[in-house]
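Replying to the earlier thread about multi-chain prediction with a worked example.

Input:
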Amino acid sequence: MNMTQTRPAADAIAKDGRGKFPKHKLEELRGRGYVMFCVLLLIVIIFSIVYFIASRGLTPFASQGVSVGEMLGGLKWAPEADTPRFGALPFLFGSFATSLLAAIIAAPLGICAAIFMTEMMPKVGKNILQPAIELLAGVPSVVYGFVGLSVIVPFLRDIFPGQGVGILAGGIVLSVMILPTITTVATDALRSLPAGLKEGSYALGATRWQTISRLVIPTTLPSLMTGVVLGIARAFGEALAVQMVIGNAPHIPHSLTQSAATLTSIITLSMGNTTSGSLHNNALWSLALILLIMTFLFVFVVRMLERRVKHA
Amino acid sequence: MKKSLLVLTTLALSISLAACGKNNNSNNADAGASSGASSSAPASAAVSGAFSAAGSTALQPLVDQASKKFMDLNKDVTITVNGGGSGAGLSQVSEGTVQIGNSDVFAEEKLKDADAEKAKELVDHQVAVVSIAAVSNKDVGVDNLTKAQLVDIFTGKVTNWKDVGGKDEKIVLVNRPASSGTRATFENFALGAKSEDLPDSITEDASGTVRKLVSETPGAIGYLALSYLDDTIQALKYEGVDPTAENVASGTYPVWAYEHMYTKGEPEGAVKAFLDYMLSDEIQGTDVKDLGYIPVSDMKVTRDVEGKVTNK
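Result:
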């Protein structure tokens, strides 16, 4: 409100040009104030979220008799049993397995799409392929889950032993979901490669394939990996689509087509059914805290990769 | 000038948001005041105010439909109906964030131990009965299971349909999460014991997903509320009794539970008028039956929180 009140006065001063407060300084102040306000708000929001998850998620360890070792290393998850057990290792395993599998499937696809769009057919790439891939990012995850349940699960059930649900189905669904992330980051990395490097390679008589495989990919590898890690982080946090196709049995599976569970799928399955403050509910917050810490680790890895880009 | 415009827009936005908050508060205050006034007035007087109900997704369609009818009759009443799960509903009504908490289970079953005091403050309004049937894929060659056979199947002692008189086919369990009200009802009244989450079993919370998986997976068995039964799956008899509304009402089919709407303390004003309306013939005789629930008034037996059944 202060701003609107001081404005006419400030404008008057700016007009006659004699004031101690020139117009550009006021603008500077306004701009700075606005940015600082937004940043402060953002910091408050981030810290409240972290505080909220941590305070709920640490309660089982602090006052409800669950040990950190049991949570991270235990194999049995039976939160409503007469003697509740909270072993989250199967979920950690499931989350890592599905995300890595998704990255293994999506990384070659995304990077090849990026090479096609930047090195081979930039026009077709930019006008057709890129919008098509970016469209994938806008599809709601429940749609992916439903398509997975209706198409991928029956398909896998017919080919492999088991019910079709499991890490393989989850990984396939996730790979489509993280494809836009990997492709966009890879395309940006390839586009930002100095043209002189490629021209030099061609001038020395290298073919296009030699240039791509020996020059373009090695030079941009850290950036490409950044895209892959961001994709893994996105896959790690995806809940609904995975929950619909993975089966959600709280056990470490013996095969890729056996029912498994991830951290997120267990949280979405049970959060609404439990009352806040109960041990089961707090244990789900602990899982959320583990997810949060994992995300921090992914962010850290991305920062390391970015540092390598700068040094290279 | 652009910057200052941005600042102004942000300020305007934040002020209008703050105003929204205030408006809500005053609305709530109004609701409180008017409900106080109307509770002293005769019951036939028009009620007004705004309140919200949240919780059980199994009960949500009924409350949603009834609230729309009620708002048509009482123009000054605004009812917001949300899902979120039984546990969330009970937490929120206990904390006072909603006025009605919908639950599939007695509050005493969710709010235990340290929270037992909270359950005592809540007043139970049983608005309908929901019955749950064991369902299987159509190909299993069995249409009736005894209690002992169901227990064997859901504890993993029997893993092939031929052991219970069916085809030579592996049994695939489609279970609900341990926190689910539907699972609690099924375990309490069909199995009489808690079941474990076995490896290779599938766990899903949404009834639609359970139905889809059971109808498509060979050898699958699960359980669904009667309103979800259709001809893509086979409803199994329990100890020779068909799961029908008539058999539930007469007390011969035991797998059923009340749908509860909890208030914190005795309801007043618009909330009381709405709960009375839920129990009136207008809802019980039509909407309750249409949506696949069983009217409480039809029941010839009652059951208390310990599960003791008595004839009316």
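The first strand of chain B starts at residue 49 and ends at 55.

Feel free to reuse this layout for your own posts.
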